[in-house]
Amino acid sequence: MDVVPNLDYICQLSQGDKSFIHEILQVIKKELPLEIWTYNLHLAEEDFVMAAEDVHKLKHKISILGMEKGYHLAVDHEENLIKGNVSLKLDFDEILELMLCFIEKT
Amino acid sequence: MNCIIIDDEEMARTIVEQLARNNPDVDILGSFSNAIEAIKYLNENEVELIFLDIHMPTFTGFDLIKTLKNPPKIILTTSDRNFAIEAFEYECIVDYYVKPFMQERFDKGIQKALSFSKNKNVENAKATLNDVNVLYINIDRRLIKIDIPTIKIVEAKGDYILLKTDNRNYTVHSTLKKIEDKLPKDTFLKVHRSYVINTNKIIDIEDNSVLIEKDVIPVSRSNRPELMRRLNLL
């Protein structure tokens, strides 16, 4: 895992099956923007517990895209949100932006 | 093994499907994004294993397990290690995958599920065997458990039978025919219209009687050939 998104895990998982790589990327392209949209909505509503749930789900995608540092930040952000603390929001937004750009280009 | 996947995240379901495709022991019957749909399916179909996400909105994986009367084997899939202790409170949970997981970890869980099935089969077989070796008799509205090998003699006494075991005697409202049907044919034999005996308990035999401890039991002429046939005569 690393700071920037990559397909290492997905490629390992595929065992050379290109159709799987295509399939999983399509699913991420579909799910990721929706999950980010829901997360932002819950933040705007100051429903931090639900926002933490959203981060929990996004955390899985961060790990699938091989972002180790991003994953640890997401874990901390999720825990903070449960306590109503949004101090890591901007850092987390950067991770989300990186993922969206990466998925767009892939 | 017939399996289903329950996870609200399509990406997670797609990954499990991919790992399952590479494992010949797994046959995915269906994928469900929520527990309610899955419960409907489980009520109508034979499923041996569920890959179950814990963290789902409104109805968690644990909520689902609690609703199932006779849950199949379950492998939990989660991004959170904190549920591990709670997970193993459920007998049906055979493994716990922390996302993201790879083929090797997936296959290990399947092996656990398969060996869990074999162990269960052995346990069930043992339980069945134990059931075969016991008999429950109704005395004063209580069901008393009798170990069949301890029964020495069953004697008909009008509307009752006297059941003599190694430990004590019981008088039960029943017929000799009824109890004879419940006893294993290889060790119990009707030697007289009023007696069924455990042939393993015979001490000695005379022309028309057998001795079981201190009891002399008559043997009718018609039953004698069968008794003799069962004995390991020198």
Automatic annotation (TrEMBL), chain A:
Q: Which InterPro entries match?
A: HPT_dom_sf
Please name the taxonomic classification of the source. Bacteria, Pseudomonadati, Bacteroidota, Flavobacteriia, Flavobacteriales
- Give the protein's recorded name: HPt domain-containing protein
**Could you name the domain of life of the organism this protein comes from?**
Bacteria
What organism does the record attribute this protein to? Arenibacter nanhaiticus
Set out the biological process GO terms recorded for this chain's protein: phosphorelay signal transduction system
Automatic annotation (TrEMBL), chain B:
Q: Which domain of life is it from?
A: Bacteria
- What GO MF annotations does this protein's record show? DNA binding; phosphorelay response regulator activity
Q: Which residues carry this modification: 4-aspartylphosphate?
A: 53
- UniProt-listed InterPro entries: CheY-like_superfamily, LytR-like, LytTR_DNA-bd_dom, Sig_transdc_resp-reg_receiver
Q: Where is the Response regulatory domain?
A: 2-114
This protein's name: Two component transcriptional regulator, LytTR family
Q: Name one Pfam family in it.
A: Response_reg
For the HTH LytTR-type domain, which residue ranges apply?
135-233
Q: What broad taxonomic lineage does this protein's source fall under?
A: Bacteria, Pseudomonadati, Bacteroidota, Flavobacteriia, Flavobacteriales
Q: Which SMART domains match?
A: LytTR, REC
Species assigned in the record: Arenibacter nanhaiticus
Q: Kindly give the PANTHER family that the UniProt entry links to this protein.
A: STAGE 0 SPORULATION PROTEIN A HOMOLOG, TRANSCRIPTIONAL REGULATOR-RELATED
- Gene3D superfamilies hit by this protein: 3.40.50.2300, LytTr DNA-binding domain
Please provide the record's keywords in A-Z order. Answer: Phosphoprotein
